[in-house]
Amino acid sequence: METIFHDAVHVLLALGLPPLLLGLIAKTKALFAGRVGPPVLQPYYDLIKLFQKGSVFSTTTTWVFRAGPVVGLVTAVIAVLMIPLAGATAPLSFTGDFVLLAYLLGLGRFFTASAALDTGSPFEGMGAAREVTFACLAEPAFFLGMLVLAKLSGSLQLADMLGSSLASHWTADGESLVLVLLSWFIILLAENSRIPFDDPNTHLELTMIHEVMVLDHGGPAFGMILYGAALKLFVFGALVVRLAFPRTGGSPWLDWPIFVGGMLVVAVAIGVVESIMARLRMTHVPVLLVAACLLSGFGIILLVR
Amino acid sequence: MVPLLDPLLIVALTLNFVALGVSRIRGVINAVALQGVLLGILALFVHPAIGTRVILLVAVTVGLKGFVIPRYLVHALREANIQEEVKPGVGSFMGSLLLGAVGTGLAMVFSDTLPLAEQHKHLLLVPASLATVWTGFLMLTTRKRAIMQVLGYLLLENGIFMFGLLLLEATPFLVEVGILLDLFTGVFVMAIIIHHISREFASTSTEHLTELKG
């Protein structure tokens, strides 16, 4: 009974909450700039509007272009079902699931990049090249962080690695976990193309990373991309929240509000980072990503020392 | 050992990487200054028995490394019209970051094999000190700007200071303050040299300094 309750809340939250995070980030940025800003629910309205539109596909594109948004969304949905939120386990949970999680997101990225290349537009090819280059550097940081959690929990299952034992590890090996937390927050910003890596509001193809890949998508296809991106933000946000506020393992009435509150805090934190930082020059992005890898790697060194 | 010691040392070690990876000189100055302040505060935690001597040492260290020297360097930066942004003379930022990481890892391994006193074994202080010294050397050798070499020298001294914390009880106060005085004089002289290089060559790159005059 309890697992059914947890799974139901998990699915509802994981599918319903992500656009709200985008709205909250936009609102935080607006408040920092002294504007009123769009309503917090604006991303939902955008999605509804996009899904009601018709589609136009360029005649030079093939099925790869149409598969891009679909695969991107589906992989993100599966990924979101694999992350333990506030329940003891996620709906999808097995030994070694974190490897699948990383490569599901990789598969989504592969198809988005392929769809961008399929249009034959030079700008989109440039964006695809940037996206995969930066992803190459972000992935080691993600895995090194996972290695720290695997070493601490002695398990290769996300549910245990981010389980209730984490709270006790915070007191014993807090330094390593702080380093992983920092590293993952950087990865969160990089993977979701936020400032300082990429400006989601930019409208100059030469400086864009993620946005430039999806310029030719419109209507429902673009809606799927937006929703998939929101889900991806939710996945990384959930990882950071579970790491920062470990599950108490007590009452679900305590765990779920803590989790949702944590997600809102992460969204506001992203908004603050976006407001107070400038975008990095493209050549400096790899340095920051390597620094994220070093932080996680350093966490491992501290653990095994 | 006090539980706050390890987190402070890790912040200090992270600042090593900031100093290696940041391209703006002012950012590097701030990182090194913050590290100096942290190390000064560290002295309070290493030795539970806090006397006037320790407090005086902390005050002098924090004041000198955290405020006087950085102010002076920023002043020199403005006087000599040094460009704000620097590139490593050898390799890239990524290269120096990775070298720094390798050095830090090796320091961790190496410090386990050192014949230390029993109470100093398994302390993060020893590897942190070795790693900071290594970072200082790296900065001294890979950067061409004279001011970056001053900062490398400061990092080097920070590392030595960390090691010195182990012996805080054994060394007389005069020696500690003497070291700080040396440091201050060193930075003072180097800032004057920076000024002269920039007046002579219209840039502060040490590449020009290849000939010795008799």
Report what the structure shows.
The complex is a heterodimer of chains A (305) and B (214). Chain A has one domain (2-304). Helix content of chain A is 72%, strand content 0%. In chain A, α6 (122-153) packs antiparallel against α9 (174-191), α6 runs parallel beside α13 (285-304) and α9 (174-191) packs antiparallel against α13. The N and C termini of chain A lie far apart (44 Å). Chain A has 305 residues and is mainly alpha-helical. Chain A has helices at 2-16, 18-32, 42-52, 63-82, 97-118, 122-153, 158-161, 166-172, 174-191, 210-213, 219-244, 252-276, 285-304. Chain B contains seven helices and no strands. Chain B has helices at 5-21, 25-46, 52-79, 93-113, 125-142, 146-165, 173-201. Chain B is globular, with a radius of gyration of 18 Å. In chain B, 37% of the residues are buried. The model of chain B has no long low-confidence stretch (mean pLDDT 82).
Topology:
The complex is a heterodimer of chains A (305) and B (214).
Chain A: H1 2-16, H2 18-32, H3 42-52, H4 63-82, H5 97-118, H6 122-153, H7 158-161, H8 166-172, H9 174-191, H10 210-213, H11 219-244, H12 252-276, H13 285-304
Helix pairs in contact in A: 2-11, 2-12, 3-11, 4-5, 4-11, 5-6, 6-9, 6-13, 9-11, 9-13, 11-12
Chain B: H1 5-21, H2 25-46, H3 52-79, H4 93-113, H5 125-142, H6 146-165, H7 173-201
Helix pairs in contact in B: 1-2, 1-4, 1-5, 2-3, 2-6, 3-7, 4-5, 5-6, 6-7
